[in-house]
Amino acid sequence: MQWKNCVFIILCGFCFAFARCNFRNDSYIIYKSSSVLSLNGIWTAVNLNGSIIVKTKVPGSIYTDLQRRNIIQDPYFGENDVLYSWVGHDSWTFKKKFKADCHLLQKTRIILMAHGLDTVSQIHLNGELIGASDNMFVRYVFDIKPVLKTNNSIRVSFRSAVEYSKEKHESQVFKYVIPPVCPPPVQNGECHVNYIRKMQSSFSWDWGPSFPTQGIWKPLEIVGFDTLLITDVTVVPDIFNGKLQNMTVSAHMEMASFDVVSGTMTISLNGSTIFHSNMSIEPDENLNAKTMIKIGFPENFDIKLWWPSGLGDQPLYTLIVVFSNSEETASKSVKIGFRTIELIQEPVDNSSGLSFYFKVNGVPFFAKGSNWIPADSFQERVTPQYIEDLLQSAKEANMNMLRVWGGGIYESDEFYETADRLGLLIWQDLMFACALYPTYQDFLSSVSSEVTQQVRRLQHHPSLLLWAGNNENEQAISGRWWPVVDQHLVQYKADYVKLYIDTIMPLVANEDPTRTFLPSSPSNGPETVRERWISNNPQDNLYGDVHYYNYFGNEWDPDTYPRARFVSEYGFQSLPSFESLANVSNPEDWIYPLNDAMKHRQHHMFGNLQMESMILKHFRLPSSSCGIQGFKDLLYLSQIVQAVAIKTETEKYRRSQSEVVNGEGKTMGALYWQLNDIWPAPSWASIGNSSIIML
To answer: InterPro entries per the record (predicted)?
Structure first.
């Protein structure tokens, strides 16, 4: 076979493919492929008592479905986040009828592949229960060959995430409380989000509303195959002195049966074959399989290194893995880049601590960037173009790093692909934030699947910098954020170690041995390890990263800010632009002092007081007699104060990279909080919802 003449055709977003190869006389042989039936499109949703029936779109969520049918209005408008809380408290079932053709029905194994179910559901096909879900971040695979027919009906019955979390809390509370029980009242949120593997901020945050979504939020497909499917490809290049020495490519597969499958494995890089060999694939007891192929390269094999923005170019290479035999051909394609990244934690001259900085391709650099939160409460509204606009804005602001914060989601493939192209390194939190978490076996099993799958999905991206186990959970225990911590301190520490150190850390190390795993952010690196994973002070300026907030100092005075090794969060609130607020409020709300409608959008305790206090240090507050102009002036002044404060703090950190004062300094990173907004409201963001620049 002349592999250089093969054309690979992508099917339905899966990257499963068939090969069509040119032989003689311009004739074609089409190898049999997997058969893929997309179930995306129009469905019907019904609530628990049957009083509401609506046409829905998959992928999607029930809130946007209800808005599309005018059952609810814009969820972001006014106090609709509270008025529409009934949606998240109800339970919704999604239904669809579809046909399966004979080509699909004849396949050896047929699976329903659900790339994202939000969150707790049972799935019935033709009246038979085929599976269940309890984790928004897991790709579920259900065998359906015995149930699938020509004419079919599928039903995905979701349970209210709010009610599910409450039930889990009530089962646990007789043993000991796992805090926080509820968010602060100012957030108008829901309770017990730490019991469910779902976007944590969907129950509210101090910058966002509570919309506990339900729905099929990622593609849903039926796939039939006779040999195997390649579901994930991971790549570990060995680069020395800018040269590619070797590369280990791993293919993770779903097998059609328990039979050993023989065929040819071919791997190409930018169209050139770098591996071609016969091999046999043996399934495990779960019909999964994995191959690891180490490929050596000659000294004259030329690659171009990938660099963060501002340090060089971002060349990307297309890697295609193909397995083929006389029965079927399967393939998966990924874009990769070649670079080395090291986290340097070593003694600092004239200091008792350790450094914390990164080298890319052997070159130290200062990390300039921000923190990323979910771009919308309803992910189906986040388009690739919106992601492109936000990340391009970050690049044009001379950023080279973003931190994907741990209370949101593992972002879409488009997000990481865009970061690869633009040269934005991604500090990736795992999705645990500002809470303690249960450690019963079902929860740990679900987390294990989540972490394994997400690391495999994202590992090949050159933009991916590191993995962090959680956001501020070490600090929550050390700082006794909740009074109950002292009562059960030994238990909480044991649970913390069981989840992040005993469960998650080995999984990440196994799936992605090349990247650093930080148990938490902020944390103290080796000092945290020495203190048995929970430091006495995770915010120590002499180690690791810190999160720094100070709302009552002089925010325009550089001396207000610390000299830390790396500052991965810092910032100040401002009010959003008038243009964004005007879309979600009434004209009678555009006054100062702020009325109850505007205060409703402030979810940070004492946030308005803090902003007014900051303004008063440098300007006069608007007069209450100025009407709409006074309101606009307040918005503008809050943004001016925020912009100068962040500029002042950022410049302090930039200067501190070259100094050590009383052991503190050598700052090598500044990631301010936060880049983007989830809705139009007071927040720390520099870009408003719908890409309105505020700084």
So the answer is: Beta-gal/glucu_dom_sf, Beta-mannosidase-like_N2, Beta-mannosidase_GH2, Galactose-bd-like_sf, GH, Ig-like_fold, Ig-like_GH2
How far apart CA 81 and CA 344 sit, in angstroms, is: 45
pLDDT tens for each residue of 511-520: 999 999 999 9
Check pLDDT > 60 for residue 407. Answer: yes
Distance CA 601, CA 76 (A): 10
The radius of gyration of the chain's CA atoms, rounded to the nearest angstrom, is 26
pLDDT of residue 624: 86
Among 417, 406, 410, residue whose Cα is nearest residue 473: 406
Q: In this predicted structure, what is the pLDDT of residue 659?
A: 95
**Residue 693: Cβ within 10 Å count:** 11
For residue 161, what pLDDT band results from cuts at 50, 70 and 90? very high
Burial degree of 396 (CB within 10 A; 0-12, 13-18, 19+): exposed
Distance CA(315)–CA(583), nearest Å, equals 41
Q: In this structure, how many other beta carbons lie within 10 angstroms of the beta carbon of residue 485?
A: 19
In percent, how much of the chain has pLDDT > 70? 95
Strand order in the sheet with 220-225: 35-38, 220-225, 109-114, 140-143
Say what the pLDDT of residue 694 is.
55
CA dihedral 521, 525, 530, 534 (to 10 degrees): 0
Of 368, 369, 367, 371, the closest CA to residue 674 belongs to: 371
Residue 57, CA distances (Å) to 81, 88, 216, 219 in order: 22, 18, 9, 11
Do the Cβ atoms of 677 and 571 come closer than 8 Å? Answer: no
Q: Are 471 and 373 in contact (CB under 8 A)?
A: no
* Tokens standing for residue 185: 């009242």
Q: What is the mean pLDDT of residues 503-515?
A: 98
Q: Please give the CATH number for the structural domain made up of 34-221.
A: 2.60.120.260
**Which residues are registered as beta bridge partners of 28?**
22
Q: Which of 10-14, 141-145, 205-209 has the lowest mean pLDDT?
A: 10-14
β-partners of residue 263 are 279
476 Cβ partners below 8 Å, 6+ apart? 434, 435, 436, 482, 485
Q: What is the DSSP letter of 194?
A: G
CA distances to 41, 248, 512 from 50, rounded to whole Å, are 22, 53, 47
pLDDT for residue 625: 83
**Enzyme catalytic residues:** 472, 569
Q: What is the pLDDT of residues 263-310, one digit of tens each?
A: 999 999 999 999 999 999 999 999 999 999 999 999 999 999 999 999
- Helix then strand then coil, in percent of the chain rounded to 5, is 25, 30, 40
